[in-house]
Amino acid sequence: MTAASRPLGHAAALSLGALLLAGCGLSEELDREANPERRPTPTATSPAPAPSAPSATARPTDPPRGPDTPPDAAERCPKSGVTMSPGMVTAAMGLRAMSVTLTNCGKGTREVNGYPDIRVRGVDRELFDVTVLKGTEPVTTMDDPGPSRVTLKPGESAYTSLVWRYSAVDASTQRGSGVYVEIGPAEGAPRQTIEPDGGLDIGETGMLGTTAWQKSPSDDVAR
Q1: What residues make up the domain containing 15?
Q2: CA geometry: angle at 107 spanning 104 and 108, to 5°?
Q3: pLDDT tens readout for residues 103-158
């Protein structure tokens, strides 16, 4: 893993920004970051395009089980009954963003309500003095839907978006990069450690904005 010390190029930032989650307004925010002089052209008849949603991951047919077959998802499910997985880190100028998906891997119904509980650690597992916000301001002005009760049946998912501003990172030592992110569904709940690809180039005293948990759009489409 290498520290994300070099912002993506202008064209890559725009294309990656469009891939982030629905309902956040993040693609527009990344566009404004990369094009500060650009202004949207108002139209009277054309509605704003719906933001893109994370696509559902296709599940192949399970192969026959044998003595050397790795454990399936149910066997890998932790005692908390949920798994956490990081999305792609997107960038435009100094703004960074990443989604985290929480999936109900257990057999019963789960509920999340509010904001995730997060700690950030560096390459040596030292705890960073990062201020974790409930909401996205003053990091950025992207929309945060606010807390709401999200009920997840087995296999269903919810997501949160993390946003931060680039801070100087030593590319050779990864000093200042949040290599490990410990995240739980809520304060007091068990945390899981995820390792974002490239890390969080947030510095050791940065601010991390979060959005409240929202139901993954792919679950609603599948109904």
Answers
A1: 10-36+76-222
A2: 80
A3: 999 999 999 999 999 999 999 999 999 999 999 999 998 889 999 999 999 999 99
- What's the predicted TM-score (pTM) here? 0.69
CATH number, domain containing residue 115:
2.60.40.10
The CA distances from residue 79 to 76, 108, 160, 214, in Å, are 9, 12, 21, 22
Mean pLDDT of 181-197: 97
pLDDT band at 62 (very low <50, low <70, confident <90, very high): very low
Per residue in 3-58, pLDDT (tens digit) is 343 333 333 333 334 344 444 455 565 666 656 555 444 443 333 333 334 444 43
Report how far residue 20's alpha carbon sits from residue 185's, in angstroms, rounded to the nearest whole number. Answer: 20
Residues written for the chain: 223
H-type helices in the chain, by residue range?
Answer: 10-17, 26-34, 73-76, 217-222
pLDDT value at residue 28: 61
For the chain, how many structural domains are there in total? 1
Q: Which residues 6+ apart lie within 8 Å of 34 measured at CB?
A: 10, 13, 14, 17, 92, 93
Q: What's the burial of 21, exposed, middle or buried (CB within 10 Å: 0-12/13-18/19+)?
A: buried
Give dist(CA 105, CA 8) in Å, integer: 34
Look at residue 52 and tell me if it is in a domain.
Answer: no
On whether residue 66 sits in a domain, the answer given is no
